[in-house]
Amino acid sequence: MIENIEKLTKIQPVVIKQLQTIYEKNRTGHAYIFDGAKGTGKSEVAMFFVKLCSCLNVSKNVPCETCRNCRRIESGNFPNLLQIEPDGQFIKIDQIRELILGMTRTGFEEGRKFYIIHHADRFNNSSANTLLKFLEEPEGEVTAILLTEAYQSILPTIQSRCQQIKFANVPREILMEKMQAEGISLSMASTVSQLTNSLETAIFLANDEQFAHGRKTVLKLVEAIKRNIHEALFIVYEDWLPSFKEKSEIEQALDLLLFAYRDIVAVKADLKNVLVFPDMLASFNEIALHSTYEQLSNHMQAILQARQNLQRNMNRTLMMEQLMLNLQEGYTFV
C-alpha cells in the first residue's frame, strides 16, 4: 500500500532508492546481505523488494499491492519465495538442503525465485558451507536475501559473494511516534529513544519500573546539584549508589546525566531539537539562565571523565564524590 512504501521510505530512504534503482535498471543480483540493527525494517524492506521484482503492475518503481503476485507474497502463499529462521540456536544443514531443493525444484512458476534467511549470522559450519556452494552456483534466476544484525559474524566467503545493503538506524522521531502509539508518554519516549534504536528494547525500558526509578534519581540529582554540594552528596549516598549497583547501570545513569546537561545547553541556545527530558524544561531553563556555556561544557567533560574512571574500576563512591565537586565548580549560591 501507499502508506507502507511511505513508511519504509521515511525509515530507510537510501536503501529503498538503491533497491528501486536495481529494479529499474534490471540489475537484480543473486545475493544480498541486508545489514542493520534490530528494528531498522530489514524484513519489511526485503518483502518490498520481492514484491517489486514480482509485481505484475509496477508503477513508478512501486509494487501495486493488489495483483495476484503481491497478494500471495503478502499472505505467505507465493511459491517463488521461501523463508527460513534459525531452528533453535542455529540455522541447520537440513534447513539449507530443504531450501536448495525448493529453489531447484521444477514445476514452479516462471520468474525470479527468492529466498530470505533471517538471522543469517547464525549458521553452523556445515549449513554455512552448504549455502556457500549454492551461492556460488545458483540454478536459474534465484536471489538470496540474508538478514543480519551482526554482519561481522557472517563467514567472509559468504560476505564476498553477496552485495551488502547497509541499513541506517531508525530516525529518532519515527521511534518516538511508534512508542507513543503504544501508549508511552512523550517524556519517556524522548528519553528511551536516546538510548536504543530498537522499538522492542525501547518499549521494554519505558515500561520497566527500575529504569523509571533510575531516570527519576538522575533528574533528582541534577536538581540537587544546582542547589548545593551537601544536597547533591546526600542524593548520591541515599539514592544514586543504592539504585545503581551494576557497572552497566552506572554507565547508563551517567549517560542520562550527560543527556540532561546536553538538554540544558540546548535550552540555553534556544535550539528546537527534541529534548531527552522535555518534562524538565522549566527546571533546565532556570539552570541555563545561571550557567555559562563554558561551565556547562566543563560539566559534560566531568561526566565523561567519571565514565572513564568507572572503566578503570575507580571506587564508585569516590568517583561520584569527585564528580559532584567538579559539577559544583563555577556555581554561585545565595
UniProtKB/TrEMBL annotation:
The keyword Nucleotidyltransferase applies. One of its GO terms (cellular component) is DNA polymerase III complex. One of its GO terms (biological process) is DNA-templated DNA replication. NCBIfam families: holB (TIGR00678), PRK08058.1 (NF005972). This is DNA polymerase III subunit delta'. It catalyses: DNA(n) + a 2'-deoxyribonucleoside 5'-triphosphate = DNA(n+1) + diphosphate. Keywords: DNA replication, DNA-directed DNA polymerase, Nucleotidyltransferase, Transferase. Residues 244-328 form the DNA polymerase III delta subunit C-terminal domain. GO terms for molecular function: 3'-5' exonuclease activity; DNA binding; DNA-directed DNA polymerase activity. Gene3D superfamilies: 1.20.272.10, P-loop containing nucleotide triphosphate hydrolases. It comes from Ureibacillus manganicus DSM 26584. Its EC number is 2.7.7.7. InterPro entries: DNA_pol_HolB (IPR004622), DNA_pol_III_delta_C (IPR015199), DNA_Rep/Repair_Clamp_Loader (IPR050238), P-loop_NTPase (IPR027417).
